[in-house]
Amino acid sequence: MWKYIAGLVVLGGAVGVAIAWVMAGDAPGPSLRFLEPTAVGRLGEMVLEIETPGGELSSLEVTLEQREDSLAVFEMGAALAAPLVREADDRLILRQALGREQFESLIAGEATLTARAVRPVLFGYREAEATVVHEFEVRLRPPIINVQSQFHYVNHGGSEMVVYRVSPAAERTGVIVGDREYTGFPAAGAGVEGADDSLYVGFFSLGWDQDRNTPITVFAVDELGNQSTSPFDYRIFAKEFRASTITISDSFLSRVVPSILQNSPEFRVDDPTDVLASYLAINGDMRGDNDAYITSLADETAPEILWDGPFTQLINTAVESGFADQREYVYDGEVVDHQTHLGFDLASTAAAPVTAANSGRIVHAGWLGIYGNCVIIDHGMGLQSLYAHLSSMDVRAGDDVEKDQQLGRTGSTGLAGGDHLHFTILLNGNAITPIDWWSEQWVEDRIIRKLREAQ
Fold first, then answer.
1. Which superfamily, per CATH, for 144-239?
2. What is the pLDDT at residue 82?
3. Bridge partners of residue 202, in order along the sequence
4. CA 446/CA 392 separation, integer angstroms
5. How many helices (DSSP H) and strands (DSSP E) are in the chain?
6. Which pTM value belongs to this model?
7. H or E stretch covering 390
8. Edge-to-edge, what's the strand order for the sheet holding 91-97?
9. Which residues are CB-contacts of 306 (< 8 A; sequence separation ≥ 6)?
10. Any idea where the domains of the chain sit in the sequence?
11. Angle in degrees, CA 448, 454, 455, rounded to 5
């Protein structure tokens, strides 16, 4: 009797295994769906969604076919393969860079992606596979640039503006000066009436530290990473920058170093009691950190012009130091440091009122290392102005200010030898000479005229 029952159990188990084996052969493979791309260019991205029980896969490969070419895009387990990201228990996402930059043989036209995935079934004894095909377009033609403005004259260390058209629309555009990029903005934000989406203005500068032969071009990049550049006519006017000597005294060091370190707890020096070494670290490393922060504020610029007319120089002030003065620092008769002074030092009476050079929005109002109490105004389209060494501040970040509105009072905070205002103009975070912007004739000829002619 028991042998009979046992036989039935064994037979039933065998039948169950056989049924499972047969059913496993009908099990569906993974569910595959391409979410991207619809098109690629120089850049692009493939996004593949995979749904499979438990997120298990035995293999996954993706190939790209275009005309007679077949390219391996992804193979699970291959060296440098993009990682599969688990977004849920049964859901995986594959993201893979896909464009001309990754696959040089791509040509303009239609292309096809094929994904094949296999998952284990029946405890790994069998497999189920699935395949999906996705068609997309390869676009490699970059935007067309047409420069509209004429007569571009650039003072070395100064700025200029170009008006141009881009067709079709650009994802990113502006002016490239050597290794520096200046953002272009829709001309409507500059007050050009009737300007369509293809018309742009771009402010740019030839930096004081760049060679006068540095190439300057307009550029445009579309949403697929296709980039074009266009030269335009311009003329560079040479500028000689002065050299000066700054003598450092013990009384100066004992006054400024402890104050700066106390107000800059994020900055560490090896020995705070060694005031000369601390000063050199402040004048070099902290200066670099401060300037990097100032550059980052360019990201907060408004896409439209906030200023009106020429900028104003602080009234009744004498110029003590000029833009891009090459400074040599001397202590106890020896040269201990070299730095470049990127602004104008303007002095009048102690605690003199400091007013906004033009209208805009405050993007910084507070302590800033070597600059002491410092206010920075955004005037839109990458243009900003900086007011440093203040003894007091009357504004806060986020405030809108008008031209000639009081910002605070002059002082000697930070690395200031005496009461004065350190003032400079910034373009995309790069310091430029304010002299151009103080000139009504320059503003009219270099900017207003071009905007008027663009209408």
1. Immunoglobulins (2.60.40.10)
2. 75
3. 162, 184
4. 35
5. 7, 32
6. 0.86
7. strand 383-390
8. 31-36, 45-51, 91-97, 84-88
9. 358, 359, 360, 361, 378, 379, 380
10. 28-138, 144-239, 243-432
11. 100
